[in-house]
Amino acid sequence: MPTPIEREAAALKRFGDRYETWGGDASRLIDLETRGADVGANGYTTMAQADDLADVLRLRPGVRLLDIGAGLGWPSLYLAEKTGCAVVVTDLPPGTVRGAARRANEPPLSERYSFAVASADRLPFRTASFDAIVHTDTL
Ligand SMILES: C[S@@+](CC[C@H](N)C(=O)[O-])C[C@H]1O[C@@H](n2cnc3c(N)ncnc32)[C@H](O)[C@@H]1O
Q1: Which atom of ligand 1 is nearest to the CA of 45?
Q2: Other CB atoms closer than 10 Å to residue 119's CB: what's the count?
Q3: Which atom of ligand 1 has the smallest separation from the CA of 44?
Q4: Which of 14, 97, 132, 135 would disulfide-bridge 57, Cβ 3.0–4.6 Å?
């Protein structure tokens, strides 16, 4: 009989594995139909809302953005491409972070991305490491 900790670890793995295979034809089609672009989203944040984030947070080259619970990197990978800011993409299951890294792994964009497996309640960063933070549809 698995312990609660083993059950939680198994759930985390299942969740991450699902994200790693996300991005197939169906999910790309949904992105294209609902947002007009293939952005790897798994939430309700629209392109217009992501564009608002870029304006409100004054994202531009030199700005360091943290995305918490990024899934496959929506909206931070899009924001980095659009504004030239640097991004650290974080999520809890390793599979999600691997999936985001795969999406971003095209130079020269990959030079402005880094990735960390991290829980929102215990982030492994020093104070003032970032200029801006986003978290969309992250509970
Ligand atoms: C609905 S998805 C949204 C993903 C992405 N931000 C988007 O809009 O497409 C919620 C994400 O929050 C992450 N998450 C849940 N609890 C978390 C926690 N404690 N720390 C970090 N990420 C967490 C999940 O793993 C999942 O990737």
Answers
A1: 8
A2: 12
A3: 8
A4: 132
Supply the pTM of this predicted model. 0.90
Closest CA to 57 of 46, 49, 68: 49
For the segment 48-64, what is each residue's pLDDT rounded down to a tens digit?
Answer: 999 999 999 999 999 99
- Give residue-wise pLDDT tens across range 67-83: 999 999 999 999 999 99
Q: Mention every residue, 6+ apart, whose C-beta is less than 8 A from residue 137.
A: 42, 43, 44, 45, 69
Q: Is residue 94 within 8 Å of residue 18, measured between CB atoms?
A: no
Q: How many CB atoms lie within 10 A of CB 94?
A: 16
136 lines ligand 1 (CB under 6 A): yes
Ligand 1 neighbour 41 (Cβ under 6 A): yes
Name the nearest CA neighbour of 83 among 112, 116, 114.
Answer: 112
The CATH number fitting domain 4-134, selected from 3.40.50.150, 1.10.540.10, 3.30.420.40, 3.30.200.20: 3.40.50.150
